[in-house]
Amino acid sequence: MTETESIAYDVVVIGGGPVGENVADRTRAAGLTTALVESELVGGECSYWACMPSKALLRPVIAQSDARRLPGLAEVVQGPLGTPAVLARRDEFTSHWKDDGQVAWLDGTGTDLYRGQGRLAGPRTVAVTAPDGTVTTLTARHAVAVSTGTRVQLPDLPGLADVRPWTSREATSAKAAPGRLIVVGGGVVATEMATAWQALGSRVTLLVRGKGLLNRMEPFAGELVAEALTEAGVDVRTGTSVESVSRVNGTVVAVTGTGDRIEADEILFATGRAPHTDDLGLESVGLEPGSWLETDDSLLVTGTDWLYAVGDVNHRALLTHQGKYQARIAGAAIAARAAGGPLLDEPWGAHAATADHGAVPQVVFTDPEAAAVGLSLAEAEQAGHRVRAVDVEFSSVAGAGLYGDGYKGRARMVVDLEEEILRGVTFVGPGVGELIHSATVAVVGQVPVGRLWHAVASYPTLSEVWLRLLEAYRDS
C-alpha cells in the first residue's frame, strides 16, 4: 500500500451517484473546489441497477398494456413482447454499464474524480484507496458530504448464500428472462420486477409476508396493483413467509411458512435496504459504523459542523429525486456557510429540505401505476391532523375512457379540515405518474381548496380527476 501526499479541497463528496453528482455540481457552481470519490461507476445505483434500467424494462410492458385497451391496436399487439429487443434497449439506457458519459459531465463541472474506496479518517479527512492499493488523503476546508446510498439487506435464511439469489441489481441487469421466478417482497422493487419479468416471459410467483402490497401507500393502491398482477398471470401470495431456500441441480426451492415448496429458476429478494456506511470510517469521527446518518434540514449530520449526509444514507426519503433535491439544498447550505453568509434554514427556505416532511412524491411503475405525494389518510391522522379522505373512481373522468377501454383506477385527496389544504394525494391507474406533479405543487404550495377550484383541468384529460375530487369534497 502506497500513500500519497494530502490534497486539500473546499469540499469532498463520497459517493458518485446522482446525489453526489448534484452536491458536487452545486458546490462547484458556487466556486468551491470539489473532489468526488466513487468506488464503482459514476452515476451510481440509479443509473445502472435501479431507476433507469428498471424503467427501461417496464416502459414496453406498460405501452403494450395500454395498446391492448384500444380497438385498432389491440388486434396487432396480442403477441408476446420481443424480450431480446427490450433487454437491448435497457442496455442502451445503462450505457452498457460504462460511465464515460457521466465522467465527461462531471469533468465539465470542474470536479476532480478519485476512483476508489473513500473512508473518513478523522474530521474533514477522507482516505481514498485506489484499485491498485494507492492511498490518497483528501482534506476538506469546509465540508465532507456522504452520499453513499444504501445496499441490499438480505434476510438471514438457511441456505441463502448457496442459492446465489437475485437482488435488485441482478433483476435489472439480467441477460435473459428466467422461465420461473420467485419474487420475495411486497414493495416497489418487488412489484415492479414482478410486472416486468411476467410480461417478458417469466412465470412469476410473488411472496409477500404482509397482508398486501405497497404498504406505505393508501391500501387501495396495493389492492389494485395486486389485482392487476394476478390478472397478468402472477401468482400473488400474501401472508406468506419464506423459511428456507436451496438450489438443487440448478433449481431453486423455497419453503414457505405453511410448508409449501415452490420451485423456480431464480429467486429475487426485495426485502429491504440498509445504509451503505459499514465501511465508511464513521468510527474515526465518533459515529456508529453501519448506521443511518441523522441530519438537520440543511443535511448537516447531527453533532457536527462539517459532515453532511445527503440522499438515501440519511433515511429521510429513499428516492432518487428526493436525494437530488437534498443535494441542491446541501450544496447551497455548504456554499452559504463557506461564505459566512446567512443560512436560510427556516421552513421552505433555500437551505432547508422541508419537502422531506410530508411532501414527498413517488411513482410506482407497475400496471396500473401508483403515484402519491404527502401523507396517507392514516399518516395524517397519526400526525394529529383533522382530515377527511375524498375518493373518486377514474371511471367518472372522460379522459380515462379515452385513454383505454376498461380503464380502472382510483384517486384520493386527504383534506386538512382546519386549514383547508391538502395533506396528501394518491392516484392509481394507467398513466397517473404524469399527474403527480400537479398534486405535489398543491401539497407543497399548501394551496387552499377554494383556490384549487380555479385551477381548471383541460377536457378531456386524466387531470380532470381534480374536478371530480373537488366536487366530491364539496358535496360530501
Automatic annotation (TrEMBL):
Uppermost EC category: oxidoreductase
Q: What is its EC number?
A: 1.-.-.-
Pyridine nucleotide-disulphide oxidoreductase dimerisation domain spans which residues?
360-466
- Organism taxonomic ancestry: Bacteria, Bacillati, Actinomycetota, Actinomycetes, Kitasatosporales
Matching entries from Pfam families are given as:
Pyr_redox_2, Pyr_redox_dim
User: What name has this protein been given in UniProt?
Assistant: NAD(P)/FAD-dependent oxidoreductase
Q: Which GO terms describe its molecular function?
A: oxidoreductase activity
Naturally occurring in which organism (per UniProt): Streptomyces sp. 900105245
**Where in the numbering of this chain does the FAD/NAD(P)-binding domain appear?**
9-321
What are the required cofactors?
Answer: FAD
Locate the coiled-coil region(s) and give their ranges: none
Keyword field:
FAD, Flavoprotein, NAD, Oxidoreductase
Report the sequence similarity comment from the record: Belongs to the class-I pyridine nucleotide-disulfide oxidoreductase family.
